[in-house]
Write a structure and sequence with these properties.
Blueprint: E1 19-23, H1 32-48, E2 54-58, H2 66-75, E3 82-85, H3 98-102, E4 107-110, H4 115-125, H5 127-136, E5 140-144, H6 146-149, E6 152-157, E7 164-167, E8 172-177, H7 184-195, E9 201-204, E10 208-213, E11 219-222, E12 229-235, E13 238-243, E14 246-248, H8 255-273
Parallel strand pairs: 1-5, 2-3, 2-4, 4-5, 6-8, 8-9, 11-14
Antiparallel strand pairs: 1-10, 6-7, 9-12, 10-11, 12-13
Length: 278
């Protein structure tokens, strides 16, 4: 099935490094793996701009749910960044200059849900072309589940209930299957589709990811012990799955704990300068 490739706007991105972070599954919770992913998002956003990083959530794939948007803001509430969300289903009540807003970000994060619905709504608002331009300009594109598969030529979506192969935007070559180890039916459909001619690519467990930076191959990341990224290829007439070596992402301390640690360090510094015993 051919990818739904986006049409370029003709504007050049110069020498900006094009970066995409694809995650097999992730939530904006206080769990250590999710905190580790948020820390990575902050770092990537901070590397793009020289000011407080701007991070925008696109929760289109789930219908712009208030719960997801609230968790997003809560996850970064204590961090030095500027947050926003673009709710396409609420534009009538919250008008927004979509192109100007998205191109002013350092990182755009696309949430999970239905990839088919996501791309249909984006097409109605010309979001895909804006995101392609953002990518060429060096704005980081990131997302989980449907928000990860959408960047590829194809993925395996459960938008209609059962897993089915579906085209993506085609910014990245190949295909992607998410929730790889904990959804065996989706994985089986993906392997069969690749065997039947779909572009080979990658499988991602929840809390595993792939980071593209520039023209080279992606680097694999994991925020949870045991979560893996796989290279899926066709060799000798069969489909193979090869785990990729991955860098582990440690979780930062929760905000309250960070404040306690900082206070303890201040007390220790005062005691040391005063010559008091430790």
């Amino acid at each position: 099935m051919p990818p739904a490739r986006v049409s370029g706007s003709g504007e050049s991105g110069g020498t900006a490094v094009r970066r995409v972070l694809a995650l097999g599954g992730h939530d904006f919770s206080s769990r250590p793996p999710d905190r580790a992913v948020c820390e990575l998002l902050l770092r990537l956003a901070g590397e793009h701009g020289g000011r407080r990083p701007r991070i925008c959530l696109l929760p289109t794939a789930s219908g712009d749910p208030s719960e997801q948007i609230g968790r997003f803001y809560a996850a970064f509430a204590e961090r030095a960044c500027e947050l926003s969300d673009v709710s396409l289903f609420r534009l009538g009540r919250r008008p927004l200059a979509l192109r100007d807003h998205l191109l002013a970000q350092d990182l755009i994060y696309v949430g999970g849900g239905s990839m088919v619905n996501l791309l249909a709504v984006w097409a109605a608002h010309d979001i895909a072309s804006i995101l392609a331009l953002a990518w060429r300009r060096g704005i980081v594109l990131a997302g989980q589940s449907a928000g990860a598969m959408c960047w590829f030529e194809a993925g395996v979506t459960t938008s209609s209930g059962k897993p089915l192969a579906a085209p993506g935007l085609g910014l990245l070559p190949g295909s992607l299957c998410v929730h790889y180890s904990n959804e065996p039916e989706r994985r089986a459909v993906y392997l069969k589709a690749v065997g039947d001619g779909m572009s080979p690519g990658y499988g991602l467990d929840d809390h595993a990811g792939l980071l593209w930076e520039g023209e080279g191959p992606p680097s694999a990341l994991t925020a949870r012990r045991g979560a893996r990224a796989y290279r899926v290829a066709v060799r000798d007439g069969g489909v193979t799955e090869s785990p990729l070596p991955a860098r582990f992402l440690p979780a930062p301390a929760p905000a309250a704990l960070r404040e306690d640690i900082a206070e303890l360090r201040r007390i220790k510094t005062i005691r040391r300068r005063a010559g008091w015993p430790g």
